[in-house]
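dumping this here before i forget
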Amino acid sequence: MIGGAEIFASTAERADRIYLTRIHHQFEGDVYFPELAPDKWKQVSNRYCPADEKNAFPHSFQVWERATTNL
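structure:
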């Protein structure tokens, strides 16, 4: 069986952009999305959405792009 953590780990080096939804709540679990290293990724967009009648928890839609280095 393969889960989200294995898929991310096997494909992360090929990605140039990540579309990430962050739920602003502490959940019990054994696997979490890894922190994005600031030397490798930069956040280019962040849209915060408060809790409402359709969403029990506030959340943010974020776009991250791979940082480029000038060698």
